[in-house]
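TA notes, week 10

Several of you asked for a full example with nothing omitted. So below is the full record: structure tokens for the whole chain, then the designed sequence directly under it. When grading your own attempts, check the secondary structure regions first.
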């Protein structure tokens, strides 16, 4: 169902979601933008799948910074938006199905 980079990314998102503090209200990032950012993050993961150790971590950090800069969003807002989506399983499933359909 999921490829290894997708599972790794999803694990990363889940980890960040547990670290993020809970807030109510609207998501900081629109779902449309969230889909695009998540797709780009999947591509970044795929780009470094044959790189290991600190070099991989460094490259991902650079890629993620570039992605967040491209969409003019903060990493914290991305994490919070993902956390909010994950609290609504139907909404998250719809979101992730859209991501998968565009990969």
């Amino acid at each position: 169902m999921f490829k290894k980079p997708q599972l790794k990314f999803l694990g990363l998102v889940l980890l960040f979601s547990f670290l993020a503090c809970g807030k109510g209200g609207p998501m900081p990032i629109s779902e449309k933008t969230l889909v695009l950012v998540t797709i780009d993050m999947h591509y970044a993961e795929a780009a470094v799948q044959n790189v290991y150790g600190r070099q991989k971590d460094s490259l991902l950090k650079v890629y993620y910074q570039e992605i967040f800069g491209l969409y003019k969003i903060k990493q914290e807002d991305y994490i919070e938006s993902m956390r909010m989506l994950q609290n609504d399983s139907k909404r998250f499933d719809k979101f992730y199905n859209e991501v998968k359909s565009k990969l």
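The chain has one domain: 4-16+28-102. Use that as a sanity check on your answer.
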